[in-house]
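Onboarding guide, step 5: your first structure request.
Type a short instruction followed by the sequence, for example:

Predict the 3D structure of this protein.
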Amino acid sequence: MSFKHYAMQEAKQQFIEYDKNSDGSVSWDEYNIQMYDRVIDFDENTPLDDAEEESFRQLHLKDKKRFEKANQDSLHGLSLEEFIAFEHPEEVDYMTEFVIEEALEEHDKNGDGFVSLEEFLGDYRRDPAANEDPEWILVEKDRFLNDYDKDADGRLDPQELLSWVVPNNQGIAQEEALHLIDEMDLNSDRKLSEAEILENQDLFLTSEATDYGRQLHDEYFYHDEL
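The system replies with structure tokens like these:
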């Protein structure tokens, strides 16, 4: 069972909670009421003096932009499919361009349409007294050079950027599932039975592949054995 399945299930449950008048769509006002208990409307062109309030204004405006982009038919509210696109734009094809634009806005500091290694690392600055970069920086540099920068030009173009901001969750899930089988498959049939799961329930309940045990309560789980 993929992470995408659980993301979709969660969004469907949220849709019911956000649709206050049960008309089959979620309006921008309903979204605000569910999130903040009131309707919030910021002026796009008027920054706030308080740094914390300004940070919230920026986040709220980003949410509104994503909401409008998800609203394909431009009607008053979002349908279930559009709400899923709003909550998980990385999982919906027509939101791909928006995901890239949002990532560039956040990371492309010089506005050249690419993300350099320095921009990728963010605000990191090497300690002048240190002989080498910390381990996490070395790991991030390796990811940039070997995982994302496919054409080795020292920067991420929009498609390379997409592979960074939208990781392949399916591959991650498969690796974790194989790890569970290696650890828990007592009879070596490359499947996990209910008895094997119960025998190793602590490991099962702390695994990302099982959504930290939530799959035990999912009617689809036992139809799609690990």
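Each response can be followed by summary notes, for example: Residues 120 and 189 are 44 Å apart (CA to CA).
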